[in-house]
Amino acid sequence: MSLIVLGTASHVGKSITVAALCRALKNRGISVAPFKSQNMSLNSFVTADGSEIGIAQAMQAAAAGLDPTADMNPILLKPKGDQISQIVLLGRPYKDVQIKDYYAETDRLLDTAVAAFYRLQALHGHVVVEGAGGAAEVNLYDRDIANIRLARSLQLPIILVADIERGGVFAQVYGTLSLLPEDIRPLVAGIVVNKFRGDPTLFATGVTRLEELSGIPVLGVVPYAVMDLPSEDSLSLGDKQRRSDCTVRIAVVRLPRIANFTDFELLEQHAAVDYVTPGGSLSGYDCIILPGTKNTVEDLAALKRSGTAADLVRLRDAGVPIIGICGGYQMLGTRLEDAGTESGTPGTHEGLGLLEIVTGFAGYRKTTVQVRRRARPLGPILSAMGEVKGYEIHMGETERGCVDEAFEGDGAASPDGLVFGTYMHGLFQNPSAVNALLGYLHARRGETFDPIGGSVSDTGTPCVRGAYDDLARHFERHVNLDYIVSLFGDPQVRAAGDETTLEE
């Protein structure tokens, strides 16, 4: 048996709740896998077999102690702009579609998702399903394959998650339940109130009133907590808290179609990292990073229109390190030759000219692969990195000509090593890469930097020591996990839960 976690809105904490459940059940000896039928995100991950899925499902798989697979997120939508998204189907690029045309494929895509769910359940026994956005989007009920139509197909118990930090939690819960279709409403078996700031016992009367209004038990009030886990999508950018006690300042250019900004979350823990929109000031930063993007051509045009492209050239002349990841790496070159597969219109586009490389987009092909590479001994940063792990997700191919590789088999670097690019996402999840960059930047300031420890896993996901167990303990302290375990309806699961004492 399995269950579904739905939300009253986007960003209420569904992904973290699923991760917490996966880890808590794993710690009770229960085999469980995560699943999200349809995800819309530019933060993605590459599995061992080269499949692309949402990074949240990779994180949840790690919480469950599993290697991520395409079945955990069979449909991934990656917005490209102008109401066009790329469909990644079972881990592989399927096609680019206008959103209005996407809905014409709803029935077939739902069948694909349901089949993936049953494969996971057959393999692992139990599945925790995550919905998408808000569950009560009444105008989408006929095509909502992430919430209503999926719930109707699977007929599983539902836990509804609400976000009290936003305010209006009573309206969130009561409104959502009132608007759910009549055949779905009885499936809701419990409510979790998330992101409470302060002592959750102060909401005791609120719990009572919610239960009176809904007729459904409130399973817990979970206090707000900052967890060292990857962010799911761009909504999380607004939650980032910049460190104010660090002298080293790094600017990540917040491209309009920024992708995989989770690449920099380890850096955020040890430096003052700002996400600067095109046109924003880059003065005073010790390093500039151009991140990945879902549309290199359009985001490069945004840099030029805003004046940021000229600023980058000026900063390079001033000796500021400039690093490009994936699409950001492509922008560093002299030109982009697009046959129309990247921007939709054939053309040649002048790059930033910081590296003598040329990138071509000649066909609807995507590279998705996990990699392990050694940095080349070029300049003070790359020379100190050693071997690193990560993964590639990109359209287009780059010709280096006579330019030196930044890593063995990948990327390019200037002779002094202060400008370099790579297709490797996850580079700065490697402590050795963080140490190399921050060690150099601190040394330029005449300061010392104490290296950080740790590693990344063989799958390339961040190894955050104890983070998943911390999350599970936090969840169990405030949520009736025994009741949730009972929802699985499997006597063996209930017995496994009975043998474990909740940590108070």
Short description, anyone?
With 504 residues, the chain is α/β, with parallel strands linked by helices.
User: What's the β-strand tally?
Assistant: 27
- Which CATH class of the largest domain applies here? Alpha Beta
- If strands are numbered along the chain, what order do they take across the biggest sheet? 2-9-1-10-11-12
Please identify the oligomeric state.
Answer: single chain
Treating each run of at least 4 consecutive H or I residues as one helix, how many helices? 16
| Fraction of helical residues | 25-40%
Can you walk through the features of this model?
The structure is a single chain. The C terminus is likely disordered. The protein is globular. The strands form seven sheets. It has a six-stranded parallel sheet with strand order 2-9-1-10-11-12, sandwiched between helices. A six-stranded mixed sheet has the order 15-13-16-18-26-25. Helix content is 30%, strand content 25%. A hairpin with an 8-residue loop joins strand 19 and strand 20. Helix 1 crosses helix 14 and helix 6 runs parallel beside helix 7. The longest helix is centred in the first third of the chain and has 19 residues. It folds into two domains: 212 residues, 3-Layer(aba) Sandwich (Rossmann fold); 201 residues, Class I glutamine amidotransferase (GATase) domain (Rossmann fold). The protein is an alpha/beta fold and 504 residues long. The chain contains 16 helices and 27 strands.
